Amino acid sequence: MTHCISYLASSFSLNTVSKYSASSNNGYRPSPTASLPVSTLLFSSFSQNFPRNGKLVSRKSGYYLAKPAEQDLDTREPSPEVSGENDGNTSTSFLSILCPLLRLFSVATSSLSTLARFPWGSRSLSESLESQDIIISDPPMRMQLFEFEACPFCRRVREALTELDLSVEVYPCPKGSLRHREMVRSFGGKEQFPFLIDPNSGISMYESGDIVKYLFKHYGKGRSPSMGLLESTLFTGWMPTILRAGRGMMLWDKARQDPPSRKLELFSYENNPYSRIVREALCELELPYILQNVGEGSRRTKLLLDASGSKEVPYIMDPNTGTQIGDYKKILSYLFKTYSAATV
Known about the structure:
alpha+beta; Glutaredoxin; eight-stranded mixed beta sheet; 12 helices; 8 strands; 10% strand
């Protein structure tokens, strides 16, 4: 519990607000005494009763980084972040109570997070567009999204991607990142998230609102984001971050420093509570992956059925080991065993 408290205190304070701007992490070294993250521990007993859904898309292991657009470099998301620099005894006392509860109610808090963001990030617009004979398909080259799971503004972009039925390459950028944050600095000029690169247009951009509008303009066939998707982030977008106590924010101190040779593939939709827990683990391990969005009504359901024999998500495929798993608890166990520095 001490590790959990210190972890949360370092990433969360309910009283401090600042920008999503990170400092350099030169000299970072994994701790040999850290325990497994909360995601891998205990789960709520009602986890099998929550409805699940899912599906698939094409596979590409390489990535392409487009030249960033200069006009985006001086923009900044007005995104608050909770920091542990001035927590004090009150915050520590609160976390000492919260941490063990999170261990017991991991799925419960994820399910509450889903309710807080309902209906955004749950269904694909392709269902409503079917009568208009509009086909939503992936662009020739996958876009790259640099983000971290706990960020509400990154969540806004992922919700839009679910609605648009798009798959993207995700490069998790947790605090303490060994690789991906440096890539964002190199290609965008600063550490700010989310950061999107679209190699099909040569565009790169910060600012979640601008990214969502861009995605709908270029890949939504003229449609607008669903009502409230943009505005609601300021009101309920923080609820999953708070309820999950910052899961998917910090790099796990036993994560492997070397990335896998090929990207994992995750079949998911943004507001699924089980998929959220798996994405948090992928972020904390800084594992790049192909996100296959399969919201309700997605036209890719048959692809997931062909791959897994089921519509349920999450479903993960690891081309590095040939492993395919559809149960979130087994996925968590596999990820932390396979991609922990202790196994290298």
